[in-house]
Amino acid sequence: MYTSNTNIRIHYALTDQMGVVYYGNYAQFYEIGRTEAIRQLGFSYKDLEVMGIIMPVVETNSSFLRPAKYDDVITVKTILQELPIAHSIIFYTEIFNEANKLLNKGSTTLYFIDSITMKKVNMPDFFLDKLKKYFK
Amino acid sequence: MYTSNTNIRIHYALTDQMGVVYYGNYAQFYEIGRTEAIRQLGFSYKDLEVMGIIMPVVETNSSFLRPAKYDDVITVKTILQELPIAHSIIFYTEIFNEANKLLNKGSTTLYFIDSITMKKVNMPDFFLDKLKKYFK
Amino acid sequence: MYTSNTNIRIHYALTDQMGVVYYGNYAQFYEIGRTEAIRQLGFSYKDLEVMGIIMPVVETNSSFLRPAKYDDVITVKTILQELPIAHSIIFYTEIFNEANKLLNKGSTTLYFIDSITMKKVNMPDFFLDKLKKYFK
Amino acid sequence: MYTSNTNIRIHYALTDQMGVVYYGNYAQFYEIGRTEAIRQLGFSYKDLEVMGIIMPVVETNSSFLRPAKYDDVITVKTILQELPIAHSIIFYTEIFNEANKLLNKGSTTLYFIDSITMKKVNMPDFFLDKLKKYFK
Containing H/E element for B10? Predict the structure, then answer.
């Protein structure tokens, strides 16, 4: 299992008139969590795009347990439960507040796509190699 | 079954550097679809809030089949498959492009909450009454 | 002078915890107003991009007089006060609520840029021709 | 003069199909810069709201010199050039990339408003006291 944590401070733009974070904005927290999970492996999602691989989201789901609020510092925990095989990768996300209460959890499935041909490709070997040590 | 259609034109803010609509923005399309589905029953979600009932999202999921693009006019089809019972309501959403291709589908579960006590309440009777004729 | 009106319904995502539209979201209303002002001339901003011309914003300013609120239908009035010359175009925007009260006004300056060379270019002739009849 | 710096990493949601940060998203950077400028004085904007003071934006302007791009870490420099008097405060903002190039500059005027009466009030004394040492 590979796990990564990232902190995000909630700014005003993310709230709505219920006085909490708008439900649609959690997708951004998931994205930031995934990006930092990759960066902590030693390269960046941006590097992947420069190499000609993009990772569009094909499926996401999210459960809202408690609201995140303005100025909260949330912790986005991003988890790979299994070593990805072939062209697909699933990130699990759990979001906690400063009192370590679980606010939200969900998962996101992305494909590896060649940005020229727009066809599915396997996860690059150097990505797989970075992950292998977490799964044995 | 109750079904409602709404059209949305994609503006620049909704796109990202992949040249398609950012995955997190579909939650807004789902929201607009739900709001217009309620309005077409003869009242508005705003009316509900004025009456002291808010409807936070507790769960959502979404599958991305084809990308929506800048300046597309998408059709958001919002469906109630079952008459809601008690404090919970599930909206199904299907999003089509102008060629009637399915771009995205998903569902969203919301609770009816008293905005003073913040406790779950049953769907208001007048809301239920408006829906009954679609389910027999 | 060339003037165009567009209506926008305020959805939940656009509000913040002050119970009004977040100040940063007016830029989207300005954008939609500009886009529809161009469309009402008989072509689209998307057409311009396909032709290899992009129009990045180089300057914007905005005054907030009264708040827009959830579920309001605002009218975005977009105005060209002068026939653009050379590579620059200024759109003035005024936003009204349903009671015809002015909520917000501002202006945005954009450049015409060749999307290959990324150099400034003059406004295309067919664009200028569409506008000329409004300025004499 | 009072100056504060904050860093922000650009995530995907902030980009648009021009491959740069959408112009409307700079308002969020300005907001985050203002919030952190206040926090670095020893209290938070959230504290002000709890005390019954809100600070709506009444005017903003912004010049776009160079684009911010995906995964850039930008530095938001927030400046008070003058000690605020009465009910109004002007924050100047300059945004730099990692090469210390100026990407964007602008200013934002906010009012101090009593959240109950919705009337203008003077800047609270404790806020003024925190600032005085920077202006002599």
Answer: none
Residues of chain A with pLDDT under 50: none
- Residue B75: strand, helix, or coil: strand
A114 and A52 Cβ atoms separated by less than 8 Å: yes
Residues of B within 8 A of A35 (CB-CB) are none
Tell whether pTM > 0.90: yes
| A13–D46 C-beta distance less than 8 A | no
Q: Which residues make Cβ contacts (< 8 Å) with residue D25, sequence separation at least 6?
A: C24, D14
Separation of alpha carbons C129 and D19, rounded Å: 30
Please tell me the distance in Å from C102's CA to the nearest CA on chain B: 22
pLDDT band per the 50, 70, 90 thresholds, residue B127 = very high
Q: Hey, is the C-beta of B71 within 8 angstroms of any chain C C-beta?
A: yes
Q: Is D91 left (phi over 0), alpha (psi -120 to 50) or beta?
A: beta
Chain B nearest-CA residue for A31: B24
Contact D46 A12 (CB under 8 A): no
Interface partners of B (3+ CB pairs, < 8 Å)? Answer: A, C, D
Q: What is the CATH classification number for the domain harbouring C20?
A: 3.10.129.10
pLDDT in tens, D75-132: 999 999 999 989 999 999 999 999 999 999 999 999 999 999 999 999 999 999 999 9
A residues 4-23 near B, CB within 8 Å?
18, 20, 23
Containing domain of residue C68, as a range?
Answer: 2-132
Strand partners, A68: none
Length of chain C: 136
Is C18's pLDDT higher than 90? yes
User: What confidence score (pLDDT) does residue A21 get?
Assistant: 98
Chains within contact range of chain D (3+ C-beta pairs < 8 Å): A, B, C
DSSP secondary structure of A38-73 = HHTTTS-HHHHHHTTEE--EEEEEEEE-S---TT-E
Q: Name the 3-class secondary structure at B94.
A: strand
Q: With an 8 Å Cβ cutoff, is C58 touching chain D?
A: yes
Residue D28 vs residues B135, C22, D13, D34, D123: alpha-carbon distances, Å: 45, 10, 12, 10, 23
Contact A24 B23 (CB under 8 A): no
Length of chain B equals 136
H or E, element range at C53: strand C53-54
Distance CA(B25)–CA(B28), nearest Å, equals 5
Q: What is the dihedral of CA A59, A64, A65, A68, to 10 degrees?
A: 120
**For chain D, how many structural domains are there in total?**
1
CA distance D35 to chain C (A): 15
Cα separation values, C15 from A45, B80, C35, C78, D92, Å: 31, 26, 23, 23, 25
Residue C49: closest C-alpha in chain D? D18
Judged by a CB distance cut-off of 8 A, whether residue B63 touches chain A is yes
